[in-house]
Write the structure tokens for this entry.
Amino acid sequence: MSRRSIQRVQSRFAHSIAILAVSLLLAATAVAQRGDAFNASGATTDLTPNYDSRGGGTVLLLTVYAESNKRRLDRQSVVKLTNQTTQTNSWQTTNDQSQASFGDVPFGHYDIEVSAVGYLTTHKEFQVISALNTVDLEVVLQRDPTAFKLDVEEGMPTKARRDTKHGVTALKSGNLKQAQRWLDAAYQLAPDNSDLNFLMGYLRYQQKDFDHAQTFLGTAATLNPRDVQSLTLLGRLGLQREDYVAASSVLEKAVAADSEYWMAHDLLAGTYLKQKKYDQARQQAELAIEKGKGGATSARLVLGQALVNLGQKKEGIDALKSYLKDSPKSPTAPQVTNLIAELERPEALAGSAVGASLVPLAGVDPLFASPELSFTMKPWQPPGIDEAKLSVAADVACPLANVIEMSGNRVKDLVTDVSRIAAIERLLHEQVDEIGNPITKETRDYNYVASITEEKPGFLEVDEYRAAHLGLSDFPDQISSSGFAALALVFHPDMRENFDMTCEGLGDWHGQSVWFVHFRQRDDRPARIHDYKVGAETYAVKLKGRAWITTDKFQIVRIESELVSPMKPIQLLSEHQIVEYGPVPFQKKNMELWLPKTAEIYFDFRRHRYYRRHSFDHYMLFAVDANEKRKEPTAPPENKLNPAPN
């Protein structure tokens, strides 16, 4: 058994001779609600829809619709009721019927603000002029044209994901026939996945099947309007087909989606040049050169031609010469050399009228100078905490202090309500390559027990062990990972002062509205959540991360975290943790706790990439009743060892 406290939560992690401690992420929050969520700040929030007036005031019943009053909104929305006279706020979330209610609303003038992810925030005013009645209001939300579509599932079935990985590997190797076999199989299982549609379009593009490539890429761009790769490749197809209006339209969307992607700027400059929009071509070419940082040599060809057509022949010739210097072996080099010679003839230099016709330019197509697009491989681990693009409702004020206070109370409730938890733990351990394909794979089952106690105020202790007191040799690659309750304790009242916390906005989690809260270890406070131990040395780890916190019950339903910076002394380059929680009922005590369902970790240690997934089931709550069991197995689970996949 390992004993640790919240003051220094640590675990054991071994690889070869070195011993490295990893605190893995397993955390929980209690579901018990104690009081109204926002009463501490003076607001009048009632979290449960109630259609009765208990104090003589008006009852407000609000129904939220999507785009018209014929279809109720398919996701949870947040409603803020502001008394314009007293400037006090009340908050509610809609139920599964897309309704919210406020009871005992006194006389006054009110503003209602309704927000949901993927829709524009809407305001509506109303007055309470009489008591003891019910006011029915309807609010219609309009889609936010700049937001991600949330009705497209980002994931895909396990088999489709596996087939896609094989297809990507074949694409990287240039084996288009094998890539098509794998990707076709995956597509049959997940035809609505935007990433898969892009890969199908890229494959058809490489096969010169431009009609089908355009169809797949168009679908990918529809499913994910900010997929810069699909948009850029669509633009290139338009250039090749000489449909410059369509090409410029889609490439304008590409640069709007990712202004740092120089290739989209480069191709857009070419479409403008073909349409004789020389000033716009110049601007986009200059942006491509700036963003490309030496890689966008082809943009100098567009820039030179645009400048010449704008009457700036000397500057244009200089740009063309720079292009030749940077790309002497380009297939367009002979044409550009001839063009420069033509432009430098005395009679050509004499004619400098803006927009003058330059027939030789027609023979130098910038598309032939542009590099072929190659798809960017998705990394083997999720995007960084600060790199992930969040889809949030626009212009929604977040009550950060209340969110932190109430979510902290949920974590504190767990310590109060729980002393010991048992579960069946299923472990998947993989060593993976640079694109996430497993090199080795093992699965193990364990009987897991953990307890949380607070022997004195502000000092929590977490005890945990697996059955039979397993040693490091009993774990895949001799890596033992643990740390029950460590990550969610970031929000514990005794711990949260060690972190800077900001609310990033209102988001969506499987149709439920959530607040995104970003946290980062403060430099002036001790790192007490996460340690690594190598030999006799202990290294405190600074974490940053993000929590998904429900807007109605303030439950933490998901947390991600990563290292603030790599730990080079122990060759730990990265670590990304993901924990998802769900309600676990204990019927005999009429109690429900929010406990981890899955916990994942991606880590790069000593030139090896690892992926681990812990899943938990068959929970038993000892603190409530030693006989309170939920499908507890009668015999210890058997360890399973699987060979690496072919």
